[in-house]
Amino acid sequence: MLLLCAALALAILAQRFADLRGTDTDLFPRWYGLRQLLLHGRNPYTDGATREIAQQTAFLAGRVEVAPAQVLTAYGFLYPLPGALLLAPLALFPYGAAHALWLFLGTILLPVTALLARCAFAPRALPGTAISTLSTAVVSLLFLPSLWNLALAQPGLAIVGLAALALWLRQPHPAKAGAALMCALLLKPQWVALLAPSWLLFHLAHWRAPASQRFLLGAGIAALLLCGVATLLLPTWPADFLRAASEYTRVPQMTPTSPAVYVVVSALQPDAAARVLSAVAIAGIAGWTIAGWLQRDDPERWGAWRSIIAGALIVPPAWETGAVMLLLPMAGTLGSLHGTHAISFAALVATISLAAAPLAALWPWRSGAAVIVAYVLLIAAWEWWLKRPNRSSTALDAAGPAVPAQPGSQ
Fold this sequence. Notes:
By secondary structure, the chain is mainly α. It is 67% helix and 0% strand. It has one domain (2-396). It has helices at residues 2-21, 27-40, 47-55, 69-74, 81-84, 95-121, 129-142, 144-151, 157-169, 174-187, 195-205, 210-233, 237-248, 260-266, 271-293, 299-314, 327-334, 340-356, 359-362, 367-386, 393-396.
């Protein structure tokens, strides 16, 4: 009964927020484009569809005719069609209902995602698991990138869920894990731009192993199905998507081309020094990531853990929404904590979220980089603390990402 009341309250809040937010969300262009394609047979990438979307936003309403083409494109459909088809069920609802449903599901998805990642990265339970589990669920909703994704109704919320699902399924069901990873890659490639290629290359390098064969088979089938359906619906989608993406890259300030590492270092150092320092840091991060995939003990887990962190630091654009991928290694760290330590970690996440929230107004288009670095430093600090020689064996027995024999211990 309590769960039913909570679900009803969440549904009402989601509908109220959807009514207040209106069409100024990241979901609206995808909903509108899919609806035009599936219900009316129109190409969602065309200038006409893009102008119709822009006309329905508060920012461009009444100014579509004088707005630059690149700015209009930023409000267009823009996503690769095969991955966008995963959102097709939402196109069957009126937008207000689709928006509310996405918020409702997203609010539930975030704690589930964090718990799946916690199980994947720290599979053996600790004493005080209930507190750690509750802290993980709370962290997923107090994490600033999570809040940004909910506020913007970002379709990328599905990416972090699919990635967590792939991690969780990788040992019992590698084919399903491969399919989940490919779905994430096709929906929003930049969010898994390091994780997905690294993971696929790892299995290609071990293609003789049955598990790798099943993983690659699942990924291949998912890619063929989604791309096949997209091509049947719109044969020109690859060229249309590339044209729209090319236009988007020319939008002023909308696509920072620098990694988060460089954005933060350049704010503290002269440009010449910042370039050198960030290049050295990126090289070190890349080497650290590769070493994760070469671990003898469960390289998939450690390679994925490092790839997610490295991707947030070195793959542009470094925005708050994409930083939600850091929820996965953060949940892994929480899996190695219990009791007051788990509560303390959750409190620090909430503190950083509160402190970093104004950055979007103070440092627009670059605030995401600062948020990413802040959370990575938090994860690193706790990993260091967990690896101290005088830590009790109880905490280290969880085999979480911070175990001395695991990543970061070399």
